[in-house]
Amino acid sequence: MSINQLVYVSQASRKMSEEDLRAIHATARSNNEPIDVTGSLFYNGGWFLQVLEGPAPTLAALYKKIELDPRHKNSRILYNEPASFRTFPRWNMNMTNLDDRQADKYDELVEVIDAARGNRKIGSASPAVTLLKIFKA
Question: What is the CATH number of domain 3-136?
Answer without folding.
Answer: 3.30.70.100
